[in-house]
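Ticket reopened. Same input as before:
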Amino acid sequence: MRIALDAMGGDHGPEELIDGALLALRQDNLHVTLVGNQQVVQAHLDRQQLLPTELARLQVVHASEVVEMGESPVDAIRRKKDASVMVAFDLVRQGRVDAAVSAGNSGATMAAAVRKLGRMEHVARPGIATVFPTLQKPVVMMDVGANVDCRPQHLCQFAVMASAFSHIFNIDHPRIGLLSIGEEVGKGNLLVKETYDRLAASSLNFIGNVEGRDVFQGEVDVIVCDGFVGNICLKVSEGLASAAMQMLKGEIMKSPLAKLGYLLARPAFRAFAKRVDYAEYGGAPLLGVNGIAIICHGKSSAEAIKNAILEAAQMVKKQVISKIGAGLAANAQDEEVED
Amino acid sequence: MRIALDAMGGDHGPEELIDGALLALRQDNLHVTLVGNQQVVQAHLDRQQLLPTELARLQVVHASEVVEMGESPVDAIRRKKDASVMVAFDLVRQGRVDAAVSAGNSGATMAAAVRKLGRMEHVARPGIATVFPTLQKPVVMMDVGANVDCRPQHLCQFAVMASAFSHIFNIDHPRIGLLSIGEEVGKGNLLVKETYDRLAASSLNFIGNVEGRDVFQGEVDVIVCDGFVGNICLKVSEGLASAAMQMLKGEIMKSPLAKLGYLLARPAFRAFAKRVDYAEYGGAPLLGVNGIAIICHGKSSAEAIKNAILEAAQMVKKQVISKIGAGLAANAQDEEVED
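Engineering reply: fixed in the latest deploy. New output:
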């Protein structure tokens, strides 16, 4: 199995990204193709002490251009045909790698993936899934930002695609919830009410509406929403987690005894932070294109990149793309029968 | 000043609510009218050791009926004319009290307030505001659940009403943000894009789009959104705060040293919990009706009820209703000039 990494995107520069790839190589028996400026990539690799067994699983593919973080995605991928992110997805398209990961300009990553891989059959709109930590197994939420104004059919397709993705957590018959503001039928906005009826009529394992407070309880495996609501959920969660840690530390620093207590409890804090750290869960897959595409935070650490590569490898092993295809075909049949 | 409390609503029974009223009486020089079953209320009061100065500021008004938590709000207020929540808002309407607070069936509280007090002039739809703790001053978000499908004019009115309400935190020229999924103009769904243009053209202190992660930073005083998105933000925040504390405690309980550390740091944890506890911020005001109405969580503790009563008192002192009226009139003029 071979995963391509866009070695040029991201806020911390190529070194951090390449270090992430090396961490992944050491943890799993996979091959990584680093895509970017050959000289820059090779120079960093030359500074590492790599074992022959590691070198044998590393490959560098040159790309002469880079999409910058601030660039317009559509313009960038039109003008920069040889951008690292474009070359990476071209490798996926050609079957030379099994998946591609990028921490560069998210819009450009999405646009490049759609352009190079194309939409899957039966998919009206590809979307971005993300993983939230919960008190039990992780939960997959989709869409978290690709589609801000959705129709019911889009949400139903998100349900199918996110369910297939949740197989990477060994969830066999994922419970699907529709994000709303009350559990009862009939609660929610117009989009949710119409989507509810469609999901209830489908052969999917739909458990009904779930509320914002259910996201972290782990009683549901897949949560479906439009990209506007999903993105706000994601950002509110990130913002609250970070603000709460700052507030708690502020309180602890006020008292020497509390500081001592914090030192004693620090391993527990670290374990907790690891558990709620989004980076631990890798990147966010773009689902609905003909191939595996993982979008990472620009600020991803080497650890986060490692996890995104391992996540991509899991998606390959669990045959997520063909599961999505089968799910969409079955769902499309459902809809025809219904009409 | 006199505040009415619906003494029958809430999950913990009349005793908890009445205890909250007594806490408020002791903290502020205000009068409280307890509305509910005279016998039940009086029996609980008789068991307390009340000072004559406290008794002098307490009044009981009998109501023969109660709206239960599971009842349909519309049916309930139609059938139960003498329900405690209806009688409480009747007191506001008659000018016999300055505000009413209820922890009963939220839908019925809202319906009773609209029925008894009526919508304010220029208000298309009353909405519910809530207060989030931040790293700096609290932030007011509106709407958090009354209106799930909104038009731009509704969001602009929420901006005006929530700004007037934010005066209770001594914020003179509140910064208004529009909740979206990117800070740049043009980011967001159709509703947000249209609302952006209206707010930018108004005389309000509109600072542009804010993202989910900005909610807890305190760089904005008022956040405007539709009731579907706002309710999900609120519930996701509550859910995450509670799940995170459970996860952290779970990690701490794994190690005796961490447990000792936690004991030493406990006062800091308590101070933190107090800071992020929604109950600390009282209830959620229903804005846009001709009078002060505060909706509390069914599970409100006596402490939460006390804070809701003190919040109502602040709204009276800061003349929030007349500020809302003035703001709406000015905004309506803006719109006429624009047309």
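The longest strand of chain B covers residues 31-36. The CA atoms of residues 170 and 318 of chain B lie 9 Å apart. Please confirm and we'll close it.
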